[in-house]
Amino acid sequence: MGALALGRAVPSLVRWGVRADADLVYRCLASFGTQRAAEVAADLGLAARRVRAALDELVEVGLVRGETASRGVEDGGWSAVAPAAVVEALRRRALHRVPAAATAGTGRRERGRVPAKLLPDLRATRERIARLVAVERGEHLAMNPERAFSTDTLTIGSAIDADLLGRRVRVRSLGLPPADGDRSSAYTAEFVRLGGEYRLADRLPHKMMVFDRRVALVAVDPLDLERGSWEFTDPAAVESLVALFARQWSGAKDPRRNGVPTVVLTQREKAVVALLADGHTDATAAKQLGMSTRTLTYTLRGLMDRFGVENRFQLGLALGAMRAVTPPGLAAEETADGGER
């Protein structure tokens, strides 16, 4: 392995639709410099075929340089393009993939032959969403490739969801497992409680919404919503995007359904969960309960193992589905009544 290159901020490639193996191979090359494919495979403990597939994907996106596939990936060294150029390359890729997704199966591959209106910025996109939501009657589809959301986005999104579900519009939402520190779990739990359908995928190709299968909005840049959205109204294009959503939905998982028997929480577990749901940190919750932070962490880890989930976000959804979590603000009422409702 070469010398570690310090000071390089390597962006996540997975959030742009790049496979995990390719992300890992890119990080290896960006961190340790030029290497042969066999060296990368040895360093990462990956099979040679997986490294070759990852390099092919990175070459297609323009994120690595090296010998061409026709000469064999073992013949020469591979190097990563500068991390600073990666995001721009992925943005250019996203701009070309949006029309491709909309034209798949329509027989029209040229962008100019599919009607698409550009909504120039986030404000225009939100105004258009508000108008479309107001007349939705049957189904709302949403695909969100972000792992974290701003408070502003969550507030607007939850209001839209509540309005649609209150009018008995079917709402299906696809997302990614949240990043550490993301505060969207409470919003997601409320969305599910109101009747929304939610699934998690390992990766998602676009950020988009589909309204009653008549209109589709696809973000120009999923990491910079200020760049606006493409609006598709062509029936064949919208149908193609609906099909894309359906494929992603069928491969995603409902985090509430883990195939486990009913779990009865101990008094300690109930207390830990209630405090965390009310906004406490691990440290403040542990202090209030008179236990160490390590004990609290072990308690949560045990719960996650029993539910068969991988993170606290999924645990919150699973507990909420079982009505095992006391929503913030109700704990005091339940205590005053002398027990659980």
UniProtKB/TrEMBL annotation:
SMART domains: HTH_LUXR (SM00421). InterPro entries: Sig_transdc_resp-reg_C-effctor, TrmB-like, Tscrpt_reg_LuxR_C, WH-like_DNA-bd_sf, WH_DNA-bd_sf. GO terms for molecular function: DNA binding. PROSITE patterns: HTH_LUXR_2. GO terms for biological process: regulation of DNA-templated transcription. It comes from the Bacteria. This is HTH luxR-type domain-containing protein. Residues 258-323 form the HTH luxR-type domain.
